[in-house]
Write a structure and sequence with these properties.
194 residues; 9 helices; 88% helix; 0% strand
C-alpha cells in the first residue's frame, strides 16, 4: 500500500483523538450528562462569554460528529441566550459547523461516493455538471425547507462540485431565516415551559 492510502485514515484518527482530548480536558460529556439545562443556565448567568464559547464549540463539534437535528442547536441557543444573542450564536456556530462537515465530506467521502453518484445521469447533471449554476438554488431549497436532514446535507455537499466559499456564504444566508424563527420560538417556549 502506498502512503496516500494511509494519509486520510490517519488524519481522521488524529481528528477523532483531538476531539476526545478536548472532551477530556473540558469535560463536555460529563457536563452535558450530569448538569443538564440548569447547569447551562447557571453558566450563562455567571459568565455569558464562557457559555457562548462553550456553546459554539459544542455546536461545531456536533455538526461534524453527531447526527443531531439542526433545530436542536436553535433550541439551546434560544433557551440559554435569548432571541438576539441566541440567533447570532446559533447562526455563526451552525455555519462554521456546516463548513467543517463540508470539508470532512470533501476530504474523506468524495473519492468513494462521487463515482457512485456519477453513475446516475440525473444526479451527475444536478450535483456535478450544473453545480456552479444550480448550487445556490439547491442550497436555498435544502436550507430554507427544514425537511432535509441538516447534518446529512453538510457532508453531502462536500461530495459535490460546489466550491467551499460559495457553499459557506450561501449556507449562512439561507440558514438565517430558519435559525431566527426557531431561536426566537424556543426563547418564548423556554420562558413558559422549561
Amino acid at each position: 500500500m502506498t502512503r496516500s492510502k494511509y494519509f486520510k485514515p490517519a488524519c481522521l484518527l488524529v481528528l477523532a483523538a483531538f476531539i476526545c482530548l478536548l472532551n477530556r480536558c473540558f469535560g463536555w460529556g460529563e457536563t452535558i450528562a450530569s448538569g443538564g439545562l440548569d447547569f447551562l443556565r447557571t453558566t450563562v448567568a455567571e459568565n455569558e462569554l464562557k457559555a457562548a464559547v462553550f456553546y459554539v464549540l459544542v455546536t461545531v463539534a456536533s455538526c461534524v460528529v453527531l447526527a443531531l437535528p439542526g433545530v436542536t442547536f436553535a433550541l439551546f441557543a434560544g433557551v440559554l441566550f435569548g432571541p438576539l444573542l441566541g440567533t447570532a450564536l446559533c447562526l455563526f456556530a451552525t455555519t462554521v459547523g456546516a463548513a467543517a462537515a463540508f470539508l470532512v465530506g470533501r476530504y474523506f467521502l468524495r473519492d468513494a461516493v462521487k463515482p457512485m453518484l456519477e453513475r446516475s445521469p440525473r444526479l451527475k447533471k444536478l450535483l456535478f455538471d450544473d453545480m456552479k449554476r444550480s448550487g445556490m438554488v439547491l442550497l436555498a431549497i435544502t436550507r430554507l425547507l427544514p425537511v432535509f436532514p441538516y447534518n446529512l446535507q453538510n457532508f453531502a455537499y462536500g461530495v459535490t462540485d460546489i466550491g467551499f466559499w460559495p457553499y459557506t456564504i450561501y449556507t449562512f444566508v439561507f440558514l438565517a431565516p430558519g435559525v431566527a424563527v426557531f431561536t426566537v420560538g424556543f426563547d418564548v417556549l423556554g420562558k413558559y415551559f422549561l
